[in-house]
Amino acid sequence: MDEIRSQLRIGIKNYFEENEKESDEFISGKSKIPLAIPPYNWEEVWDSLDSLLSMKTTMDKKVKQFEKLFAKYIGVKYAIMVNSGSSANLLALSILSNPILGEQRIKKGDEIITPAVTWATTVYPISNVGAIPVFVDVNEDDYNIDPEKIKKAISKRTKAIMNVHLLGNPCEMDKIKKIVKENNLLLIEDACEAHGAEFRGKKVGSFGDLATFSFFASHHITTMEGGMIVTNNKILYELGKSMRTFGWVRDLENKNEIVKKFPNIDQRFLFLHSGYNFRPTELQGAFGINQMKKINSLVNIRIQNSKYWNDRFKEFSDFLKISKFKKSSKISHLFYPITIIENNFFTKNELVNYLEHKHIETRPVMTGNFVKQPVIEELKYKTKGNLKNANNIMKNSFVVGNHHGIDKIRRKYVADVIIEFITKKIS
């Protein structure tokens, strides 16, 4: 058996090494530059296969090890892994809606302020727990929620702020934290797109009552599907562990104390809270452990790509608006965003079509202005202000890929194609 395992391990390693040689070749104008490439290698596949071979596939030791590694990386005390970033958002809102939190909890009809430019599964959980999303406008330069707009949106029913560090751009957390403190609000950070991003030297995800991350295949690190909730609050942590898995008591620190109160119920199937089945697998845990060894280098590649493109596009500031690196922030772009400044020479769609023709994949900035999406008719919601910037982003912004597979040759090609297009149009 050991010999068979050794052969499998060597075979998987050789397969990935050969595949990497083939993928390294880049032919200008013919090779595709995709939006994303999952950043895993043979190590993740082998450790996942090891879980399959050992018949230990559901949440266990590897998941717990990944949780500890990720909590340490973010700089918080606790982490709860779940099966997706979307589940992380739903579980986070459900934790904060639990009756044991008393009057501080989110109740039906409470309002939660959130940015208009966002992702769908940031919005849905707010509605799922019976709260009302209140959409406010974002900044044009970083696509993030505008703190001044938050202030104007606060009402007697406001219970929380759910900010989004969109595309790895850190929000102005000093201003947001001040608003939260002054108004006694809960704070949920959606950091699903912002692994490694920092504000004033602190990792995003370490500011809120709860914060969420996604490990989808296109993200900075991946468990293919998967997500994480992080917190410094032990009560929320214990509640989250229970609600992640049906609401049972198996993983709780005070399990024995609870079991004594219900001696006639099998402690394996003792349910304390309403909950979900958001358990991740050991395969995902295996991925996560190996990804943590690579996260700094993977994030750094994205940062260097963004800085390179920012530098190349400086001379076209009359036509392109880009996210600038600030002293207060460390940007960790999920994708590289570009906003076209409306002009008489070309439109966003013309540039996007040209890039696609040159085999450079593009996509909109997340959902654009979510209020413009038809699903909004199914939701009870509010808006505050005219959402002018959100509308402009939906009309004039897009992203290109920014990942470990974009090397110096590929990132130069992307810049050359964009500059070539603009130069032709304005000459």
What's the structural blueprint in terms of helices and strands?
Layout: H1 2-23, H2 42-53, H3 61-74, E1 78-82, H4 85-96, E2 111-115, H5 120-128, E3 132-136, H6 147-153, E4 158-164, H7 173-183, E5 186-190, E6 198-199, E7 202-203, E8 210-214, E9 227-231, H8 234-244, H9 255-261, H10 282-292, H11 295-312, E10 320-321, E11 329-330, E12 335-340, H12 348-357, E13 362-363, E14 382-383, H13 388-396, E15 397-401, H14 408-426
Parallel strand pairs: 2-3, 2-4, 3-14, 4-5, 5-8
Antiparallel strand pairs: 1-9, 6-7, 6-11, 8-9, 10-12, 12-15, 13-15
Q: Please, could you describe this protein's structure?
A:
- The protein has 14 helices and 15 strands.
- It is 40% helix and 14% strand.
- The longest helix is centred in the first third of the chain and has 22 residues, at 2-23.
- The strands form three sheets. It has an eight-stranded mixed β-sheet with strand order 1-9-8-5-4-2-3-14, sandwiched between helices.
- Strand 2, helix 5 (120-128) and strand 3 (132-136) form a beta-alpha-beta unit.
- The chain has two domains: 51-292, Type I PLP-dependent aspartate aminotransferase-like (Major domain) (Aspartate Aminotransferase, domain 2); 296-426, Alpha-Beta Complex (Aspartate Aminotransferase, domain 1), CATH 3.90.1150.10.
- It has 427 residues and is an alpha/beta fold.
- It starts with a helix and ends with a helix.
- The model has no long low-confidence stretch (mean pLDDT 97).
- The protein has helices at residues 2-23, 42-53, 61-74, 85-96, 120-128, 147-153, 173-183, 234-244, 255-261, 282-292, 295-312, 348-357, 388-396, 408-426; strands spanning 78-82, 111-115, 132-136, 158-164, 186-190, 198-199, 202-203, 210-214, 227-231, 320-321, 329-330, 335-340, 362-363, 382-383, 397-401.
